[in-house]
Amino acid sequence: MALNASRNDLAAGAMFVAFGSFFALEAMKYEFGTPFRMGPGFMPIVLGGILVALGIAVAAKGIGRPDEEAPHAWPLRGIALVLGIIVFFAATIRGLGFIPVVAITAFVTAASSSRNTMLSALVIALGLTMLCYLVFVVGLGMLVPLFGPWLKF
User: Which of 14, 111, 130, 139 sits most deeply, having the most CB atoms within 10 A of its CB?
Assistant: First the structure.
């Protein structure tokens, strides 16, 4: 008996449910709090729950709608670049500083898609770097050096 559903939607929904469940369950170890006095577990539990609900919705959308085309080849270049840039971010945030690491990470991640040109990846990186600066440094007051000790200006 063949499953009359989109494998892509079912797989995506399953991944959303798995990640959302993991984070929500792990966050239950922390105090939840209230919406006005949020504890450290509040946002991970709420966002994990939203991710689970989104995963269920994505999977439900795929039921009764089988994929019309053959599955695409895995984008190995994109997978390697994204996984590598996560390691790069973690290893260099303290040495390079916030601005260069976010810019490089955003550029490489955008460039990992075959749909982006180098110019569009650069525009995405500059915009995302400015947005991250405004949200994390200006808005949230995150204490991280903008340029690290590895860069001598």
Answer: 111
Element (H, E) at 110: helix 98-111
Model pLDDT, residue 3: 65
Question: 143: how many CB neighbours lie within 10 A of its CB?
Answer: 6
Instruction: Tell me the domain boundaries of the chain.
Output: 7-62, 76-139
Query: 74: which residues sit within 8 A by CB, 6+ positions away?
Result: none
Is the pLDDT reported for residue 55 higher than 70?
Answer: yes
- Output the CA torsion 34→35→36→38 (10° steps): 60
Asked whether residue 9 carries a pLDDT value surpassing 70, the answer given is: yes
Are 153 and 147 in contact, with CB atoms under 8 Å apart? yes
Which residues, 6 or more positions from 11, have their beta carbon under 8 angstroms from its beta carbon? none
Mean per-residue pLDDT for 67-83? Answer: 82
Q: Give the list of residues 6+ apart from residue 110 with CB closer than 8 angstroms, or none.
A: 116, 120, 121, 124, 125
Interatomic CA distance for residues 15 and 22, integer angstroms: 11
Do residues 105 and 89 lie in contact, with contact meaning Cβ atoms separated by under 8 Å?
yes
